Input
Amino acid sequence: MKLEQTETGFTLSLNGRTILDHSDASPAIFVGYGQERMDMYRGNFDIEDYVIERRALSHTEIDGNRVSLSDASGQSPRLILTLVESAIKFEATDPKLNRLWVRIKADDDEHVWGGGEQMSYFDMRGRRFPLWTSEPGVGRDPTSEMTFKANVKDKAGGDYYTTNYPQPTYVSSALYALHVDTTAYSVFDFRQKSFHEIEVWAIPERIELFAAPTFVELVETLSSRFGRQPPLPDWVYNGAIIGLKDGANSFPRLDIMRQAGVEVSALWCEDWVGLRQTSFGSRLFWDWQANETRYPKLRDKIAELRESGIRFLGYVNPYLCIDGPLFEIADKAGYFATDGLGKTALVDFGEFDCGVVDFTNEAAVEWFAEEIIGKNMLDYGLSGWMADFGEYLPIDVHLSNGVDAKLMHNAWPTLWAEVNAKAVASRNKTGDALFFMRAGFTGVQKHCPLLWGGDQSVDFSRHDGLVTVMCGALSSGLLGNAYHHSDIGGYTSLFGNVRTPELLMRWAEMAAFTPVMRSHEGNRPRENVQLDQDPEVLSHFARMTRIYRHLAPYLKSLSVEAVERGLPVQRPLFLHHQDDRQTYTIQDSFLYGADVLVAPVWQAAQEDRTVYLPHGERWVHVWTCESFAGGAEIQIAAPLGKPAVFYRAGCTNETLFAALREI
Amino acid sequence: MKLEQTETGFTLSLNGRTILDHSDASPAIFVGYGQERMDMYRGNFDIEDYVIERRALSHTEIDGNRVSLSDASGQSPRLILTLVESAIKFEATDPKLNRLWVRIKADDDEHVWGGGEQMSYFDMRGRRFPLWTSEPGVGRDPTSEMTFKANVKDKAGGDYYTTNYPQPTYVSSALYALHVDTTAYSVFDFRQKSFHEIEVWAIPERIELFAAPTFVELVETLSSRFGRQPPLPDWVYNGAIIGLKDGANSFPRLDIMRQAGVEVSALWCEDWVGLRQTSFGSRLFWDWQANETRYPKLRDKIAELRESGIRFLGYVNPYLCIDGPLFEIADKAGYFATDGLGKTALVDFGEFDCGVVDFTNEAAVEWFAEEIIGKNMLDYGLSGWMADFGEYLPIDVHLSNGVDAKLMHNAWPTLWAEVNAKAVASRNKTGDALFFMRAGFTGVQKHCPLLWGGDQSVDFSRHDGLVTVMCGALSSGLLGNAYHHSDIGGYTSLFGNVRTPELLMRWAEMAAFTPVMRSHEGNRPRENVQLDQDPEVLSHFARMTRIYRHLAPYLKSLSVEAVERGLPVQRPLFLHHQDDRQTYTIQDSFLYGADVLVAPVWQAAQEDRTVYLPHGERWVHVWTCESFAGGAEIQIAAPLGKPAVFYRAGCTNETLFAALREI
Output
């Protein structure tokens, strides 16, 4: 990084590219203070800021790698920037300041990606992205009937930027990345032509900058910065994780699916803890231990499955329901976040209240990791679980570390991941026990072995359907999350919107080319078609699990790449085709490793797919062997069972890929 | 007004009440600059501001009645305030400034009213009100299906603050009024407990302040400031203005209604200019002259009607359609607003384009007033018309006075009113010819003899139905608009939402106690029930016109009060009951003059109404003679035909009011 004084300010450049250009006439650094309004309703936020002052810091004084900024010459500095390696350290000398705006120099034709796990727009240029972990939203499109209804009913509609996993980090097509080291509410605004504006509702620790000659090296760098995941467990390669929540009845249903030729790696029963009945239908009982009424002799069942080479997975989240036995223990021990008066804060999750385990309290972390995840889950025989939630820390609770919950809210998903990873490590199961999370934030990479794309609607909709899962995988992958997957068939079924067999099949076709295949019955199993209820769906799914298993050797090699270099399994086309700018905005197809290009059909009633094939290679269509020169868009037949998948002619695994058409 | 220096700033008080309290620690005056985004779609606006700087002007220097404000001591002033009589003059010495925020001291329990013609909330405390003339919106409630659909279809849903007639003026329960002398986009934010924040997207000319010992005197003062209307024409007292747009068929339909006992003052045919067919259905032909194909021998028909004591009204708006003969004349003469290249700017009104007559061009005003309104309308025999639109000035056109259209947009309704008034005056018809407008802004009072409440939906909805008309009358009335009325039965019928006979009857019951009764067939006459299509509705309506006519002597006296003192015909209860704070938030009943209290039924399927009767009087129920002591809320039967109406016991017109129950 290079700091240079200019006539009325300074410029800061990284590998010769100007990042900051601050002058009296066109300032890049603004500070101020505001009063925010944040209303939360079951993980959905209504947030508004009242900016009382926002002003450029016009006067600059430079001393070595230190920049003092003040309102005007002769006035005392209000903000001090210090260059430390490739980061800008911020220090506010005016305690009143709680807002910072920084303008990063931008090119007209620049593209930006990242922002955590973004579900609607992979290329973020031209839009504004608040970065605050929350429920993803239903429909996520204010112009859709679905989102309108969800908003009116529960304020739960969401929008293009709502995500379980935000992260104040972006990768620029100008071959650099920028990360804001803060957990405060922040906004990336990419709507301006000549600059990106970064807004933080605090004075952040640092802004870190990364540059590299290639996107691949840039991703490697980010992955070492944020932490790497262990390899995929060996058992995962055996087939799909089958999600059933049908009590004891789940086992015979699994057998029928196996007899139908489904390759199975694990059975996942989120209802292993039992159910409670609410007006919304049956919900899980939020007290984390096996429920032997719903699953008689579960311990033995798990052992039996294990012998037949199938693992058993469960479910956990960071809350404890007030009517469960664990609540009393945690309450007595003071493990919960409290209200203003020191009493356990209760959060309403819809007809039942819960305590929030305070993960800033070491004793509470120890207890949750050892007593709950360690003993009740791992020792009981679970090989993994959905580590749900993490985006719900209420902003009005009091925490034992004394930090404002508004500043801990974004940090929570990472703390939650750490609790899970710690428990797994305590049993030496890292790389074998597999938990998966939808929530995330900076640093979750280090602790969470697998992301899942959250709760899509059971449809093909643009902002909440099948297609959004690719966007989530590509954006989070660039920031060092190597492993991503999703609920096959989607999750959220509301207002009469239900799955079609077609959706289930298209989703399975996509999932076969991701790190993990996992099915989900959805939030309304009875109203939505299930894998084992339609022979066509079942045989199609069985074949996809065979395809997944067939590709295991290749997937293993990608897992090795992930461990060694931090490269994601699912990659944007441009990652390996940097010189082909045509690839920069593509978000509905992806590279599965360097050698396979996958273009799932993500709309209903499609018989073919239009695909752009990157320049400079020949691409072989797996189902027909037909090969195409890259650098052009082609239209290819993609009936059910034959998603548009290509491999790079001449790549190492050519024979493996060529054999796919025999399956 | 009194200006006093304080330790680090100053205070400004009006009749002993502190209005401004500006100090270093808690500043009241902020300036800055921003870049707004304003997108217009057929009169609906999507507006967003990007505030680049907003800062308090902390350093104050006072010299007599002059306050210089700068960022800090030793720095040159950026804004100068000068006290001139009871106004604060603003002068920016920094040309970069285009935003001003002023905090007016507020009390916890203060109420504020006005803001032009507000349709949703009479008491504006607790909410934020952008002041920008626009389409009112359909449903005006983002949580309603109606508004959602209108937004998706045409961005036309609106919200609680969207109005045809905004005005940056409010009346405070602390017995003062404040007016911002600007046509720029502005916002009144009444959400804070200790201050009201006034935001202006320009440095305004002045902020004017008014104080008085009583609300009545305050309203009188505002009315002299903004201008007074002529008395109601004598012919209006004869009965209702019947709106029909059925071509020649309108005349026999009128006869049938008269035979049914309807008292008629005028026939209003907005289709007097003829129709055009579009996919939205038939629209008026926007070329302002009689269409003798649709209305054969119209001139003679008008004369005949006149002999039988009935006037004829038409329709006009400030646009000319490209396919009409008048367009060519105006285009040749250069009377239209232009695009950047000097060509006539064309505005799409839905399958037809129009030119916008440039009312900043004296010659264009002359021509429109003399050739169109003068010759084609008044000389032709029209006694009035709907002077529609005025809120549609596109913000990207160029005007002959060289002023930015963004600054002329809010000014347009008043210019439009002036053109109409000028034409009327040129024929010495002021006080006889009656035009009515929905659009307005500061100063419209002086030129527009009658407001109409705009395009309500044909329903009982909270934010776009019958009840909103009262809010419109009360808010605009406080600011010197003495005469208000509405489309009986509402106007907008969309997405299958149609009138019920009940709605028509409830609306007529309310209208009988307003300055003018006027019916409207609505935007979809064939799909919505009409007055002459239902015997019950027709006889109910006939009776209401007789009630209206019976009250004519009283209404005449109110018109005299309006001319002499500027008091509105419809008044908030508190206007005459200042000491009864219970009345301060009431917006669903009103005083009709000082002596009659009207509480219309504004919801469906109601048999009675809850009414608050002001303290210190006895109130006589007109239909039963039963009298009630004020100072309490009562519940009273209010079946169809018997709206909750009371008169003040012992008032001058007691016998007149008592006789109502004989009708």
Notes: The first strand of chain A starts at residue 2 and ends at 5. The interface with chain B takes residues 30, 32, 51-56, 71-72, 74-75, 143, 145, 148, 151-152 of chain A (CB under 8 Å). Chain A has three domains: 2-226, 234-318+362-569, 573-662. Residues 2-226 of chain A form one domain.
